[in-house]
Design brief:
The chain is of the alpha+beta class and about 400 residues long. About 50% of the residues lie in helices and about 15% in strands. The longest helix has about 55 residues. The protein starts with 7 loop residues before the first helix and ends with a helix.
Length: about 400
């Protein structure tokens, strides 16, 4: 029915013009931004997923930087440890020279001068090996290894020493401590053997060990008066083995041993909560690797107070330097293992970043070819709708001519 009060055709044409114009605007926004989701209503679920992925990507990119920084820090620490290891090798050479019977005390005094200087240099390197202004090897940094390590300790539990017995002959007993033979002897006056206190027994054990260059194990008397033997090395790898136990039962009993029975003691390592620093290497706070570095000061290596000016002092130093060299080697092995872990994690992070970027792209990035085709189609529709609006606006004028 022809009417002039309401232009239905124009209203329909304008509705389609607005609809097509909105579609064209969406296409232009997507093409100009390069994103398939230019507003939340385009794909609410996809936007939520992409936002989570974007957050993970930001965390992983920082985690990659964290891993790289940690590797640089560990390489710095390993460089300092390598220098200390070289110094220890030189010190062992000096100790070997000073322990030789072919030189005199004057020469040992000169050797001690260099030895003392090298001890100071160990502490200087420990303090001077820094990363970002923080000393790494002196135990003062947040990366310090606060693990509580104990030595392997044998406690006899027997107080009172060895009592004199009626015997016209000397009483002897022997056993090996970490492979070094210890011989105990209670002399006889022709009627009775001599009594030996706990202190006498401890001294006899130490003399027997030290005469053979074994300074990594020593005997002492505890508060109860019982013999205690302890190693210098600490940690779960520290061992104290007493084997080949033979000899007089009474003398052996005074140090808590029984013929034919071996004893094996081991140290322990208890990781403290303050050990090292946790480095975030993932998209969540719990994705961490603990970065800890052992102290390599002269005191931590058990070298403080060593003196090569005497032959016995040189022999002691020679024995303890082996332990120190082993400690530095263990520390470098742990640093190397941690470096390897960071390297593998860094590669895994890079792979994760690549995968997440691809996933985010699949959700967020616009398909240029498809959107261009859609924009071309919408452009034609907009032009057609605009033309239809123009034609619809002419209809009432045509109807007015009927009144003429």
């Amino acid at each position: 029915m022809p009417i002039i009060s309401t232009n239905i055709a124009a209203s329909v044409a304008v509705r389609y013009l607005n609809k097509n114009s909105d579609r064209l605007s969406d296409s232009i926004a997507k093409l100009s931004s390069g994103s398939r989701i230019s507003k939340a209503s385009d794909d609410p679920a996809g936007l939520a997923i992409a936002t989570g992925i974007s957050s993970d990507l930001a965390s992983l990119e920082q985690a990659s930087v964290n891993a790289s920084n940690s590797l640089a820090l560990l390489q710095t620490a390993d460089g300092g440890a390598a220098s200390i290891s070289e110094i220890l090798e030189r010190m062992k050479s000096l100790a070997s020279q000073a322990a030789s019977g072919t030189i005199g005390d004057d020469e040992r005094s000169n050797i001690q001068t260099e030895f003392a200087a090298l001890l100071e240099e160990i502490d200087s390197i420990s303090t001077g090996t820094r990363y970002n202004g923080v000393s790494l090897l002196d135990g003062s940094s947040d990366y310090s290894d606060d693990t509580v390590e104990t030595a392997a300790v044998y406690e006899s539990g027997v107080a009172g020493g060895y009592s004199a017995t009626a015997s016209a002959e000397a009483v002897t007993a022997s056993f090996k401590v970490n492979g070094t033979t210890v011989t105990l002897a209670s002399l006889s006056d022709g009627t009775n053997t001599s009594a030996m206190s706990a202190d006498d027994l401890a001294a006899a054990i130490n003399v027997s060990l030290q005469e053979q260059g074994q300074y990594t194990v020593s005997a002492s008397v505890d508060a109860s008066g019982a013999i205690v033997m302890a190693g210098v090395e600490t940690g779960e790898h520290a061992e104290l083995e007493i084997t080949d136990v033979t000899g007089d039962a009474g003398l052996l009993a005074s140090v808590g041993l029984t013929a034919g029975t071996d004893v094996r003691e081991q140290g322990s390592s208890i990781v403290a909560l303050t050990t090292g620093a946790n480095v975030v290497v993932g998209s969540e706070g719990g994705d961490t690797i603990n970065l800890s570095i052992q102290s390599l000061t002269a005191e931590a290596l058990g070298l403080s107070g060593l003196d090569l000016s005497t032959r016995s002092g040189a022999s002691k130093a020679f024995s303890l330097l082996d332990v120190a060299i082993g400690s530095v080697a263990d520390m470098r092995a742990e640093v190397g293992a941690t470096m390897s872990r960071f390297e593998f994690r860094a590669r895994q992070i890079d792979t994760s970043i690549e995968s997440l970027e691809a996933a985010e792209s699949a959700i967020m990035d616009v398909d240029i070819a498809r959107e261009m085709a859609r924009m071309s189609s919408d452009t034609v529709r907009v032009k057609a709708a605009a033309a239809a609006v123009a034609q619809a606006n002419l209809v009432p004028q045509y109807l007015l001519k009927l009144l003429q």
